Amino acid sequence: QLQKELKHKEVKEIKQQEQQEHQQNQKEEQNDKQVKKETNGVNQQQQEVDISVEESKEDGKVYQYKVGETVMTMWEKTVYEAKIMKVRWRAEDDTPEYLIHYPGWRKSYDSWKTEKQISKKIPSVEKLKHRSSSSSEDTSNQSEAKRPKIDRGLTVCQEYNLFSPKLRFQLVKDYQLVSEENMVVNLPSETPVTKILQKFEETQQDKQYSHFSASKLAEDLKKCFAGLIAAMLLYRGEREQYKTILSIVSGTEIAPQNSKITAGMELADIYGAEHFLRFLVKLPEMIALSELSVEEHVSVKALLVELLEYIGGEDGDSLFCNQYISSTSWN
């Protein structure tokens, strides 16, 4: 009887062990399937990126963005996050173009964008504000001026109803490229501040303002811009570039052989729309603190609205630099 009980117990234990092994095998198979599925997904995504890389090398063509990359772009005057689905080369102007998709929206909203119309994914607005304020605190004890507070300037401009979403997008894109990617605008600009103001004056020839003319505003803006570049309009990564430019124009340093910057040039003939836009962010705040009369204030505000509409319009697209360069490669 004892032998029977022992044998029965042994058989029961063997069955339990076999059942446990079977359950363990099933669990391992499920894990293997899940790992294989994840691996295939990663490989597929990597394959898309690799395809983009191969395409970017074809015939020496260079694409700044890859398939599958998340970027920022504008649609209906609002900035959206988007994903690049395809890339192609535009034969008509020999530039790259990207098919972008807006996550959460139908494919019917997909569209082709140029490199100028998209930007790398940027930090949230709250993070930008935090970085802007913290950077000002870091430099509060230095003799050099603080970096511009983009969020405060935009707040004032919004009170003036001046800055369009398109210009805000350009401003934040400029911040990201310079502060996050250590790049600088390639100077001198092909459309410097002097030329921008001249073109703006031409658009105002048939308009009259009772207490402040477009030519007077352009003259004052040019002088004010040149005086505020070092104090308010440069990010930290641009200061070395500024010091070099200042040395060349003052004649204390010889310009490199291929440089278009020469001794005696004005800063308004060197810097372009990117820095001028930063200046315009600060301008309403300065106007509010000025001693202008009520009538002059009204005229200046009207001219400023016209100026920003010109820069933010279709005619202003050509004013901005299409590509930035590494801060270490400039001159």
Describe the 3D structure.
The chain is elongated. It is α+β, with helices and mostly antiparallel strands and 331 residues long. It is built from 9 helices and 7 strands. A hairpin with a 4-residue loop joins strand 2 and strand 3 (95-101). The strands form 2 sheets. Strands 4-3-2-1-5 form a 5-stranded antiparallel sheet.
First CA to last CA: what distance? 99 Å
Q: How many strand units?
A: 7
- Percentage of residues assigned to helices: 40-55%
Radius of gyration: 29 Å
Shape: elongated
Strand sequence of the main sheet, in spatial order? 4-3-2-1-5
Give, in order, the helices and strands.
HEEEEEHHHEHHHHHE
- Mean pLDDT, all residues: 75
List segments where confidence is low: pLDDT < 50 over at least 5 consecutive residues.
42-58, 123-160
Count of discrete alpha- or pi-helical segments spanning 4 or more residues: 9
The largest β sheet comes out as: 5 strands, antiparallel
Percentage beta strand: 5-15%
| Content-based structural category | alpha+beta
